[in-house]
Design goal:
Elements lengths: L1 E4 L2 E4 L9 H8 L6 H55 L12
Antiparallel strand pairs: 1-2
Length: 101
């Protein structure tokens, strides 16, 4: 399950600025590695983060498109309801035939 925190989706229980236990143990001894291995692991990590960022960006775009569609539909339905209410409020006398009949 995910929760929204400062416009970011994080696994439930994970707070901003905190690493999971797995991440802590993975990166805890990174400073002891040789520089090439460390750079390689950081590049891989960045690639995963960029992929997640693009996936979230696509998801947000899709959600905004859906929101726009729903807002347009809501506006059309509100206009239809207003016309219906106006029609129902007209009295039968307003529909009486003109005097020349």
């Amino acid at each position: 399950m995910y929760v929204t925190v400062h416009s970011l989706l994080l696994p439930q229980g994970l707070k901003p600025g905190k690493f999971s236990t797995r991440s802590q143990s993975k990166y805890a001894n990174m400073s002891q590695q040789d520089p090439d291995t460390r750079i390689n692991e950081l590049e891989i990590h960045i690639a995963h983060l960029e992929s997640a960022m693009h996936d979230m960006s696509d998801m947000i775009k899709s959600q905004w498109d859906r929101i726009d569609l729903l807002e347009r539909r809501n506006k059309l339905m509100a206009e239809d309801i207003k016309r219906l209410v106006d029609f129902l409020r007209t009295s039968p006398e307003d529909d009486a035939p003109p005097p020349h009949y």
